[in-house]
Amino acid sequence: MSIRIERAHLETVPQVAKLFDDYRVWYGKESDIDGAVSFLSERVQQQESVVFVAYEDSPDKSEPSAIGFTQCYPLFSSTRMRPMWLLNDLFVDPKFRGRGVSKQLIESAKELTRTTDACGILLETETTNDIGNRLYPAVGFELEKNNFYFWTRD
Fold first, then answer.
1. Mean pLDDT, all residues of the chain
2. In this structure, what DSSP letter does residue 26 have?
3. Phi, psi (5° rounding) for residue 84?
4. Three-class SS of residue 1?
5. What are 3's strand-pairing partners?
6. CA distances in angstroms from 85 to 14, 22, 23, 65, listed in the order given
7. What phi and psi, each to the nearest 5 degrees, are found at residue 62?
8. Other beta carbons less than 10 A from residue 133's beta carbon
9. DSSP H or E segment with residue 65
10. Torsion over CA: 51, 24, 42, 125 (sign)
11. Positive or negative CA dihedral for 71, 99, 97, 19?
């Protein structure tokens, strides 16, 4: 299996939207493909996020299949006085898990951090995400002891 990672652009958003929708459904949200296309298109067009897409190149040279993605948002660290990235979304089609696709997507996020002279990457995952909680330390992330809180606007 040949995997290729590319940065998403407006023309490739529809390929990513199905994966993005599956990701949201995995987190308990209702399926909304049109909303996924709209949301991702806005982020890419406004340059508000960077989306990397993993493709499996087919041996017959037909259209490659999008099999995973990660989405990173820019942030800033006041204490470090430098930009940083939030790795907010990471999803690989279940049929392709266990083949290193997530690691390749994370490596693309790390390269983005290097090329933008950012100080690092922040991510959060649920304590019940056994796969993620094994993956992230394996690719160099350190578990921090900080509490994360979130306020939801009604």
1. 92
2. H
3. -150, 175
4. coil
5. 56
6. 24, 23, 20, 27
7. -75, 180
8. 14
9. strand 65-77
10. negative
11. positive
Q: Is the distance from CB of 20 to CB of 51 less than 8 angstroms?
A: no
Three-state DSSP at 39 gives helix
Contacts of residues 109-113 at CB distance under 8 Å and 24 or more positions apart, as own/partner, are 109/52, 109/70, 109/72, 109/85, 110/140, 112/50, 112/52, 112/72, 112/85, 113/84, 113/85
The encoded tokens of residue 73 equal 């948002």
pLDDT at position 66, please? 94
Convert the pLDDT of each residue in 16-67 to its tens digit: 999 999 999 999 999 999 999 999 999 999 999 999 999 997 776 667 789 9
pLDDT for the residue 50: 98
Secondary structure letter of residue 121 according to DSSP: E
Alpha helix locations (H) across 27-145? 33-45, 101-115, 130-138
pTM of the prediction?
Answer: 0.91
